Each structure stands twice: as C-alpha cells, then as structure tokens.
Amino acid sequence: MKEPVVEELISLFNQLFKESLNTVLVKGDDEPIYLPADQDNPHHRVIFAHGFYASALHEIAHWCVAGPERRKLEDFGYWYKPDGRTAAEQAEFEKVEVRPQAFEWLMSKAAGHNFNFSADNLSADIGASESFKKAVLHTVHQLLEQGLPERVGMLVDALCLHSGRKPLAKEEFSL
Q1: What are the tens digits of pLDDT across the range 1-53?
Q2: pLDDT tens across 47-82, in order?
Q3: Which of 16, 36, 44, 103 could disulfide-pair with 23, CB 3.0 to 4.6 Å?
C-alpha cells in the first residue's frame, strides 16, 4: 500500500463535502483551526497544520464530531487549554478527545496511515494514558459494531476505496 498523500486527502474531502456541506479542507501554516464561512470566504474551512496528514485527519475528526450548530462557530465554539496542562486538566482533555481520536484512528486505518494517540501536551511531558487508549479502542470497536456516523462513514468508505483496501474490521484495532 502506498503512503497516503495529503493533496489526495484534500481532493477527496472536498469532493465529498464542498457542495453537500459547504466545507473544504485547507492546508494551513501554523495552528489548526476551523473557520465557518464568512463574507470573505464562501465555504467553511477545516484548516490543518503544516500540511501534515495526521493533522488533517485529526481536524477532520473534530469536524465529524461537531453538530450543525457547532459548525457555525469558530473552532466549533470549544475552549482549548494549550500545551502545558496539569494532570487534572489532561484528564479532562482526554474525556473529550475519545470520540474524535476514535474517528481519526478509523480514518487513518482506512487511508493506510499510521495512527498515534495524541495527548497534545508535550511541554508537560504527559503522554496519552492507558485508560484513554483503552477508551478510544472501545469506542472504535463500538462504532464498527453499531455503524459509523454518516460523515465518518463516507470518509472511511472513500479512503478505503482510494487506498485499495477492504472495509475495516474490528479485529484490525488493538493496543
């Protein structure tokens, strides 16, 4: 299987969602951000960092979690505590990251891209906890058993087709 190419992911995402949900995937420079359409930009924009494939999938995963009202707000209206969180703040961060990281893992596997759990807290030297990893794995297994949400399913199916792989199976996901 060939290494996934970010420009192909951008094209695939935009084919799926530019017309249907007025949303495009954009390669950004620094910090990732979601920006709703405005007077200067006719489309909602999922902007990922530095052209990194993993960043694109992570930001797409957050977009897939956000409902219609949240998608009208910059960064979906969420508070974000940057790098350097305490252990208690990290535990809170992990609670809200389970679903998006489960989505990201599914999309990564479909694309043939390596997935890494993200604690997003490098300066505090706090990695992803074992309980967090288990919660993400459990969520992945549940999603595969019960069916993927529409946008995640569309992306996973398109990525599997594009990468030439078979549909995802629960047995492929383990710690």
Answers
A1: 566 799 999 999 999 999 999 999 999 988 899 999 999 999 999 999 999 99
A2: 999 999 999 999 999 999 999 999 999 999 876 656
A3: 44
